[in-house]
Amino acid sequence: MKTTLLKSEDYTRSPWKNGGGIFTDIADAHRAGSPAKDWDSLLWRFAATPIVAPGPFSFMPGIDRLQMVVGGRGLVLKAPGQDFDEREPFTTVRFTGELEIVTALEAGPVEVVNLMARRGAAEIELLALREPGERELSAGTHLVYAACGECRIRVDDEDFAIPGEGTLKVELTAASKLALVSGLAVLGSIRLTG
């Protein structure tokens, strides 16, 4: 097991693919040997961003996306023939980057976290850890994001305190156990497949 504490002051910023906003980039991975770290070389990306006005989402062919509201409420993603309801915070929605999506904000701006992965290169999961308890983690990369103030977790027998908006990156070569001890966390899990 390898763990790295990522602090909010070290996160980088980058524009949305369509230029409509700014991502706070928390962690990502790109194809080895790629000349540039860009959308074409992306394997996966975990990021936070505010959505302050209704508008279109970026077109991201070949990218699978998971999203969760972590601040504010009332977000609905509108796509042809279906809506993705994120009115309640800490609800995960899954959609493809090819979908034409326009946001609707029913109660003002929101803050969301996104976990994106190149289809066929990685399998991803995104869920809120709200109640103390233990869960199995598979081999892969896991990101524990303290979305609402400090949280405490235990991985196997080791305790970690994660400051507000900080992220603990846990890289596992074998299955392990994670327990939320206190606070609230968002868990993003990535398993490379390609």
Short description:
It comes from Bradyrhizobium xenonodulans. The protein has strands at residues 2-6, 12-15, 22-30, 42-51, 63-71, 75-79, 82-86, 92-96, 102-105, 110-118, 122-129, 133-137, 140-145, 151-155, 158-162, 167-172, 176-182, 185-192. The protein is an all-beta fold and 194 residues long.
Structure description:
- It is a single chain.
- This protein is mainly β and 194 residues long.
- The protein has two domains: 11-119, Sandwich (Jelly Rolls), CATH 2.60.120.10; 124-192, Jelly Rolls.
- Helix content is 0%, strand content 59%.
- It has no helices and 18 strands.
- It has strands at residues 2-6, 12-15, 22-30, 42-51, 63-71, 75-79, 82-86, 92-96, 102-105, 110-118, 122-129, 133-137, 140-145, 151-155, 158-162, 167-172, 176-182, 185-192.
- The strands form four sheets. It has a six-stranded antiparallel β-sheet, with no helix packed on it. Strands 1-16-13-18-11 form a five-stranded antiparallel β-sheet, with no helix packed on it.
- Strand 2 (12-15) and strand 3 form a beta hairpin.
Features:
single chain; 194 residues; mainly beta; Jelly Rolls; 2 domains; six-stranded antiparallel sheet; five-stranded antiparallel sheet; 18 strands; 0% helix; 59% strand
